[in-house]
């Protein structure tokens, strides 16, 4: 994993934040299709963004000195699909983790569908693909109501497969690779004998900067690390339009660099001191970010930005459990009544930032496995006992127990 960005918190915003900007756009870019969000869409977007910072804070607790790059939108989508197969108690817990307690499950599903349609229409010059799928063992029968929700609201592909076959693993990974334009490969390493379902979200994003950088102007410049040291890294530079704002609470500069017709942006939150980067995500919330960006200033001046590439892969199961995610209560996935639990939440991502723009991809795989009450053996009635040598069968002692008292 690249080490170039140990102090700058970077993420791609899939939901546009309010910013002050001029009306100029490139003449060759299509006009955005913008409309007001419905109340439930706005709540979904806001909750998803707050979930972003909650998830980032938990990951930082586990990996405080490592680069990471995630699509919280992908994780959020996979969890949203899964909660439709949970019982009421677990549904409530999922909704709490996602910050959606004010919505019904039906409102959440419908708002997800319409919100994805909305962000697809914001900029035709941006390549965006959001794909969902459900893979389940042919030894089980998926509940039709659950399958209908996935296909209707999440446009999910449903695959019934032999989970004991290597071909299934290859096909599943092939689906992910295709949906992420080849950027995410071999995301699922194996299928355990107990696993019976996988819920998958894949997302791919590629966009050019509104004003691109000249590759000939990219040079090695100094980058300050959190530990006080400095390194030389390839840095792009150009006189480009961007927005800047300062937040006193965060003690951080917020910089936005637009893509395409300016409805998508690369947002950077850079603390005053490099050593303050750890823990920064835990201080950010959507209201603070939106309010700060609402007062941002438009600049057209020289901007220096590291050129970099990140790859990240992690099992987020424990991170999400720490956030309150339930592991069980998944009674509405299959017709068969078997105890089920989440086995893993694999998240793998890729990001490249270069002179042309950014290319990003991510996948979230939630594995479901069969479980049972921990097996136990009870000796709770009178018995005869022997002490013997097992190889020869020689009995050394014998007896009978009628009353252990």
UniProtKB/TrEMBL annotation:
Q: Residue span of the signal peptide, if any?
A: 1-20
Where on the tree of life does the source sit, at the highest rank?
A: Bacteria
The UniProt record lists the Serpin domain at: 53-404
Asked whether the UniProt record includes DNA damage among its keywords, one would answer no
Is Signal given among the entry's keywords?
Answer: yes
One GO MF term attached to the UniProt entry: serine-type endopeptidase inhibitor activity
Check the record and name the SUPFAM superfamilies matching this protein.
Answer: Serpins
A single cellular component GO annotation? extracellular space
| Entry keyword set | Signal
Q: PANTHER family, per this entry?
A: GH10112P-RELATED, SERINE PROTEASE INHIBITOR, SERPIN
Please state which protein family the record places this protein in.
Belongs to the serpin family.
What's the name of the protein? Serpin family protein
Source organism of this protein record: Marivirga atlantica
